[in-house]
Design goal:
The protein contains 26 helices and 13 strands. It is of the alpha/beta class. The protein is elongated and about 95 Å long. Helix 3 runs parallel beside helix 12.
Length: 625
């Protein structure tokens, strides 16, 4: 069968995405299976992907893919976080890059017996890490924020710098008589500077164009940004060779930190494109790597990778973090985590083709060595990263506890009921008196705006199980659950809605991925007054129904006015009460009960098969105190 370029790329896309799907379920780094898939489908495997078909188009494909990948990486960088770790990041992408280039070059020269020129070309190629491999690892491991910021920023920012360093080095190697080291350094700085300015202007322009609501139709915004970025990448390259990679990265950072609406949708769109491009490129690039070349590298090739991982990277990290307050355990983890990604693979393939066309020997071996580095670092570091993070205690404890935005009498009672089952609660509020009252009650509380990302991070939102919007302002509650869902991927979300207001509909909070707190719309101000003035008491009642029943019926107005269900104590867990909460025999529900209607409420409980649960002795002591 004759395979044309369209069919070849389609096969690469499909097989790559299938490989990523398998890697997700097997919980192994996706790039490992992508490299295997490329090798399997290439000329030395079943032969359905023939590199000769797409060689002429590879540079264009790589350009499009790298532009989108690095723009998406820039979108995810938070300048506020970068500033906090600016010294470490700056030194890693400058001093650290030089250490890696020199160290890898020396290792290749003395161990592989390569020429100095080829050795230092190898050093430039493996100086980059990359968001395509670092980001998935960070999502899985959940490191502490400082360490996570450094790793992610290094991966995104070192890619364009390292790629341009490599291109300049290649030009110096291929035209030794025309260029000098001083000329190459000037050329490097010129390209970096031009790309930075061009990307800064482009990023500002995109954000300005996206700001007016009706200037660009909603259904065209994602496509508009994509085409703008691709045009900016190629225009920057045309004006100043290889500067486009810097331009798109800077533009991504600018746009990602602009307060532009629909930014989350844009980031998700670019992330999906990035996954598609990574799948396609790794399969196409891996198909072109010769098994014979990798075999020729032999044990010496593996030894070079080991030296990169266990000697050069630690030296890089410990030198680059001098003058910072980074903890030793963070430095040790950073020393281990430096997997290479798509930029190293793409530039290595470009080098192999360019050197071969210029009749230079060693291009294919250079590419094979880079792919060996990618395969070993991604596999070893991706698989062991989680275990090492636990050993070094640099990972955040995840899926534990709740954040409640809104500190008052009702939310404190919820916290008490949750704490009785071992669930920790952190409060967030901007009212000084409310914060003081919560502190006096013995709970952790963060003073600040509950919609401010930095405040939520201080409260530990990136490691909690759930988030509760319990302010009297239902619009704030809606915005909170939207933010928690979109930016922090919290799955358990709850929002309070006022019984008399109709601005926020139940459908709106459900669309945000949240559930209606208390099972129905309530008047939280009224219940706060009742609890503070001892007009309401906290009681626990046990369900005896054999069938699973819906706890709150929205049409039962008497019960809803006189009872406020807070949480459900199940056998081994605690649940927040929502409009979807169901209970069965043995489940115990903590209620706030209006004293004035206590007799009627007791009759209602008894008629419905509920049994009063006597408070535990320690609960009585707490109430008396």
């Amino acid at each position: 069968m004759q395979f044309d370029i369209a069919l070849t790329i389609s096969l690469a896309l499909v097989s790559g995405l299938i490989a990523q799907t398998f890697s997700h379920h097997l919980r192994i780094p996706g790039i490992v299976l992508l490299l295997f898939t490329g090798a399997l489908l290439g000329p030395q495997g079943v032969g359905v992907i023939n590199p000769e078909v797409y060689h002429q188009s590879l540079t264009m494909l790589v350009g499009f893919a790298v532009a989108v990948i690095l723009f998406e990486g820039g979108l995810n960088l938070d300048i506020k976080r970068l500033r906090r770790e600016s010294i470490a990041i700056r030194q890693l992408i400058t001093i650290g890059l030089i250490i890696t280039v020199v160290g890898a070059g020396l290792a290749a020269h003395y161990i592989l017996q390569w020429t100095w020129e080829m050795s230092f070309l190898f050093g430039t190629l493996v100086s980059v890490t990359g968001p395509t491999v670092v980001t998935p690892i960070l999502r899985r491991i959940k490191l502490n924020k400082n360490l996570s910021t450094v790793l992610e920023a290094e991966g995104v920012l070192i890619d364009p710098i390292g790629a341009i360093v490599a291109i300049v080095a290649l030009e110096l190697v291929m035209h030794p008589g025309e260029s000098s080291f001083l000329f190459g350094t000037g050329d490097l700085l010129l390209r970096l500077g031009f790309g930075f300015v061009f990307g800064l202007i482009g990023g500002i322009l995109i954000s300005l164009l996206l700001r007016p609501k009706k200037l660009i139709p909603e259904n065209l915004k994602n496509i508009f940004v994509l085409t703008f970025v691709l045009a900016m990448f190629h225009l920057s390259n045309t004006l100043m060779g290889e500067s486009g990679i810097v331009a798109v990265t800077v533009a991504g950072v600018v746009l990602g930190n602009a307060k532009t609406k629909k930014l989350q949708e844009l980031a998700e769109f670019k992330e999906q494109l990035t996954m598609m491009f990574i799948a396609m490129l790794f399969v196409l690039l891996a198909a072109d790597v010769s098994f014979a070349d990798i075999k020729l590298l032999g044990q010496n090739g593996v030894l070079v990778v080991v030296i990169l991982m266990f000697l050069i990277r630690p030296i890089n990290v410990f030198v680059s973090t001098l003058g910072t307050n980074m903890a030793l355990r963070d430095k040790l983890f950073l020393s281990w985590m430096a997997p290479r990604g798509i930029v190293a693979a793409a530039v290595a393939s470009f080098f192999a083709v360019t050197l071969e066309e210029a009749s230079y020997d060693g291009g294919n071996l250079l590419r094979a060595m880079v792919f060996l580095v990618i395969a070993i670092t991604v596999t070893a570091q991706g698989i062991t990263g989680g275990l090492l993070a636990k050993i070094l205690k640099v990972s955040r404890s995840t899926n534990k506890g709740y954040i409640i935005v809104g500190a008052h009498a009702v939310s404190i009672e919820i916290a008490k009921a949750m704490k009785a089952k071992g669930e920790e609660v952190t409060f967030v509020d901007s009212n000084v008196d409310a914060v003081r009252h919560v502190q006096e009650s013995g709970y952790k509380v963060i003073f600040g705006n509950g919609l401010d990302e930095s405040v939520l991070i201080r409260a530990g939102i990136d490691s909690v199980k759930g988030c509760i919007g319990l302010t009297p302002n239902e619009e704030i509650n809606l915005l909170l659950v939207q933010k928690a869902s979109e930016e922090f991927k919290i799955e358990l979300l709850y929002a309070y809605l006022h019984i008399k207001n109709g601005h926020v509909k139940i459908e709106m909070i459900e669309e945000a991925g949240a559930e209606l707190l208390f099972g129905a719309k309530r008047d939280i101000d009224l219940w706060n007054v009742r609890i503070r003035r001892n007009l309401a008491v906290i009681e626990k009642w046990r369900c005896t129904s054999k069938d699973e029943i819906l706890l709150v019926k929205d049409n039962d107005s008497f019960v809803n006015r006189s009872l406020l269900p807070l949480v459900v104590h199940k056998k081994n867990s605690v649940e927040i009460v929502t409009n979807k909460t169901k209970v069965k025999s043995g489940d115990e529900v903590v209620f706030a009960v209006y004293e004035e209607k206590r007799t009627e409420i007791k009759d209602w409980f008894n008629s419905d098969g509920w049994v009063f649960v006597l408070p535990e002795p320690e609960e009585v002591v707490q109430d008396l105190s």
